Structure formats: structure tokens, C-alpha cells
Amino acid sequence: MEKIGFIGLGTMGKPMALNLLKAGYNLIVNDIHPSLLKEAIDAGAERAESAKEIAERADIIITMLPDSPDVEAVVFGINGLVEGIQKGSLFIDMSTIAPATSQKVFRAMQEKGVEALDAPVSGGEVGAQQASLSIMVGGSADAFKRALPIFQVVGKNIVHIGPEGAGQVTKACNQIVVGQTIQAVAEAMTFAKKSGVDVAKVRDALLGGFAQSRILDLHGNRILERNFEPGFRVELHRKDLNIALQTARELGLSLPVTAIVAENMNALIAMGYGQKDHSALALLSEKLADV
Amino acid sequence: MEKIGFIGLGTMGKPMALNLLKAGYNLIVNDIHPSLLKEAIDAGAERAESAKEIAERADIIITMLPDSPDVEAVVFGINGLVEGIQKGSLFIDMSTIAPATSQKVFRAMQEKGVEALDAPVSGGEVGAQQASLSIMVGGSADAFKRALPIFQVVGKNIVHIGPEGAGQVTKACNQIVVGQTIQAVAEAMTFAKKSGVDVAKVRDALLGGFAQSRILDLHGNRILERNFEPGFRVELHRKDLNIALQTARELGLSLPVTAIVAENMNALIAMGYGQKDHSALALLSEKLADV
Q1: Do B268 and B274 contact (CB within 8 A), yes or no?
Q2: Which of A272, B15, B223, B287 has the fewest C-beta atoms lying within 10 Å of its C-beta?
Q3: Are residues A209 and A269 in the same domain?
Q4: Which pTM value belongs to this model?
Q5: Would residue A171 show up in a list of annotated catalytic residues for this protein?
């Protein structure tokens, strides 16, 4: 069985690494916060001192990091992956980052004779724990085939979208749709509430028609039950929309409503709700309605 | 069997009236465009010269009209319904109009000893033809019970939401969510297209996760297939969003993204797409991306 290097054992990475250990993989792990390594080491993972050491010793290297600069630091920084990576290795970045960064990393790996995949996920902490993540993959068909058994350990709905960067583009699309749909549900439910109409009945009626969505079902229910504990935090969703908006500027297109939703998330963070679930967009709508 | 008066035999009203005739109801009909009456009269409906005459002769009066001023004209105008309506009659307005107008009509009917329901529908022309409309109803439980057999002839998903106006509030919520969700899908699919990624694969991947919606499925498919024939016309959806925004101003709340989507529909109309399906919001996104 191939040896897997895993870098980034945070909220998402840790349960994913534990699932790989449970499936019998040999893991070698690293995180800039050493305290995050304990559980994985207790479960049988080996500890590496640097990304470079992981690159030297693992056949497949997975990163699960917060944002594009973190991935760049791990790949290109001092004692980074490119310093140690072996020809024939496979690099899988499962972080949600800018498509352009994924493409830059892909090219750097290609120069080293290494295949790279961008494979961001959705499904949140619960999906990571239950190994039910959706995984959107960009890269070559061969690399996808090689990675598939690993993806099947940590996820369920696994789609190879296209070449390098295509996974990140898909994830950005997902975050655009999810953010705007929550905003839509928030505006509608607040409108019903301010009108004095039974919001739960409105949601029920809407679920039976064209307005149906998983967001109206799940996040609509959160709004009814006043359950704003994450879930998926506002701060992370704002980061993902920043990636979409920055990429749109580079590509040359306008995403007017995505921009407004990102601004609404900025407002939520200003209001102290950055650590709440993104369904807290309803709290901003309610503020703007005084209900 | 009670005699039904039916006013407004346009795109929606005509198939609904024909379904009621097919179910064996006696119908007396009127429209300001006499040419629209022919089919219903050929199918056995009686013709009335005015709304007042319908009010005098029918037990239950249904209106299916384009907008609030049309309903006000039929109810309060010269030879209008209130001039002839009989105590104990039931008035059902199935038009999509402002909740405040529905409430004003309700009170006027109440003064005449007449129950009124606001019962806007969704499902479009196809839903009207196939008798599969969703019907969102506001008014008393007794009036709803009396109207239910009629609703069951023309629709399927029939929900009594609350008191007078509650049906219109629900319909406005539906149009808020549907409009914004199409906008979300349009921005995401345009982003994928401009990125050079396979848009159909992105849609497939998104349908498997939190971004799932009936809009992503059906309207997303329309966008892929470049099928912008209605369906539901941009001009009508803009009218419905105007109702939502006007009502929001009266109630005192802000619907920032609903306002942007309404403006985007204004742009579509300026571009000559007013008679296209509302999924044409993708055409505006594509214009803003030069793809």
C-alpha cells in the first residue's frame, strides 16, 4: 500500500486523516500547529518535521489547508514540498483555493515529473467525519484513477470534472450557488415574517414547487429553529467567495450578486457572527427588517 | 352544483376555465378582450356582459387577472363585482397581486357578507393546462373548505397558509426565491464557462450537494440547451418582483438582492428578452462575461 503524507490536520484534515488510518493506510503527517498532530499520531501516524521530509518519504501527498497562501507556502516555501518531492509521486491538494494557484502548483509539480490534482470538497466537518464528502477533481484522468481509492475512503460523491483547476472552479461555483441560495431563502423568510405570515407554512409550500432547494430545506429549517451553530462558518464562506470574485476579476467577468452576498458576509462578521453558520445571513435580513 | 363566474380568460385563466367546464361546473365568463371568450363559450360556458352581471348570477366568482390594478378595476370599477355581489357568495382571486390589494378586496367583500380568498398559483401555462398548479391560499378556513373542490380541479399542491393576504405573501416569497436562485445558477454557470470548464459536468457535480435545487436542475438544463422559450416570461417575473419590492417598502424592510435581480430583469427587457423565459438571466450574465 502506498505511503500517504498528510499536511494540515485542522477541522477538515484531521477526521480525513483518521479515516485513512482506519482504512489501513500508512500516514506521515505534519501541521504548523504541532498540537493538532496528537490524535493522528495516537492513531498510528508517523510525524514528519517538514513538508520537505513528507515529500521525500511519501508516495502520495495530500494537503488540506485554509487558503491559497498556505498551499503556496507548503509547496514553494523553505523546506517545502518541491524541495523534496520524488518523480512519480502524486500530489493531491484538497484545500479550497484559487484555481490559478492550483494551476501554478500543477505546473511546478509537472516540472518535477509529479502529477497533481486539485480536489476540493464540500460537506463540512460532519461530511469529513462521516467520510461522506463531495469531491470535485481537476487534473489528468490517470492521476484521478490513481487517487480514486483514497477519495473513496474519505468521500462519496466523487466527480472528475476536467483538467487542472477544474475542481477549484467547480467548488467556486458551488459556493456561489450556496451563498446566493441562502440569501434568497433569508430574504423570503424575512419577508414572510415581517408580513406576519406563518414562516414554516410558507417554507413547506415553497418546498413543493420551483423554489425547492436543499438550502430551503436544511438552512431554512436552521433559520426556523434559530440554530446558527456551524455547520459552515460565515468566515470560511466569505473566503471562498473572495476566491470566486478575485478569479472573476482575473478572467474578466462580473458576478454582481455574488459580490453583494460577500458584502453581506462582511457585515455579518462586523456584527460578530463570523463564527456562526452561513445561514446567519437570515440574521442580517432580519436586522434590515427590524424583526 | 354551484354556478361559477370566471373573469380573465388569458394564458392562465382559459385552461383553468376549460378544466372547470370539463369537470361539469356551470360557468359564466367575462373578459375585457371578448376574443378570449370563444373557446370557453364553445365548451359550454355562458357569456356575461359585465363583472356586475357575473356577481349577480354566480355563487362563486373567480378572477385570474394580470396585476393589482386589473383586480381593483374588476372589483371596484363601474359595473364591477361589488355592485352586484350577493351575500353568501364566495370570491376567489387567483391572480398574483399585492398582498395589500388582496386585503383591501377582502374587507370590501366582508362588508357585503361575502367571503374572499387570495389564491395565487405557480406552475405556469403548462401547470394550468395539466391541472397541476400549486395554489397558495389566504383567507378563512371555512372559505378554504368551500373552495377546495374547485382548487382540486385546477391544481395539485394546495396549501392554506393563513388569513387574507397570506397566499399573496407566499407567492411573493416563491418569486423572490425562484428569481434569486436562477441568478445564482446563471452566475455560477457563466463562471464555469468563462473558466473553460465543462459546464454540464459542473452542474452534475453541484446537483449532488448543498447547491442542489429544482432551478439548477430544470433551468440549469435550459441554459445548457440554450432553450429560452417560456416557460415563465421575464416580464411577468419582473412584475411579481415589483410586488415584492413595493410590499417590502410598505412593510419597512430591505430586500437587497431581490432588487438587483429585478434590475437584471429590467436589463433583459431592455435587451429585448422580455418575452423569453426567466432563465434568460443567464444571457445577461454571459453578456457581463463576454462569453
Answers
A1: yes
A2: A272
A3: yes
A4: 0.96
A5: yes
- Cα–Cα distance measured from residue B31 to residue A101, given in angstroms and rounded to the nearest whole number: 62
The grid coordinates listed for A220 are 431554512
In chain A, how many domains are there?
Answer: 2
Secondary structure of B235-264 in the HEC alphabet? HHHHHHHHHHHHHHHHHCCCCHHHHHHHHH
Which residues does chain B have within 8 Å of residue A190's beta carbon, measured at their own beta carbons? 253
Determine the residue among A181, A268, A279, A290 to mutate to test chain B binding: the one whose Cβ has the most chain B Cβ atoms within 10 Å. Answer: A181
Instruction: Give the closest-approach CA distance of B289 to chain A in angstroms.
Output: 4
Does A77 share its domain with A94? yes
Residues A127 and A15 in one domain: yes
Instruction: Read off the pLDDT of residues B159-218 as tens digits, 9 standing for 90 and up.
Output: 999 999 999 999 999 999 999 999 999 999 999 999 999 999 999 999 999 999 999 999
Among B127, B142, B162, the domain-final residue is B162
What range does the domain containing B228 cover? 169-289
Q: Are residues A127 and A178 in the same domain?
A: no
| Same domain as A156, residue A29 | yes
What does the alpha-carbon distance between residue A204 and residue A38 come to, in Å, rounded to a whole number?
46
The model's pLDDT over A119-143, given as tens digits with 9 standing for 90+, comes to 999 988 899 999 999 999 999 999 9
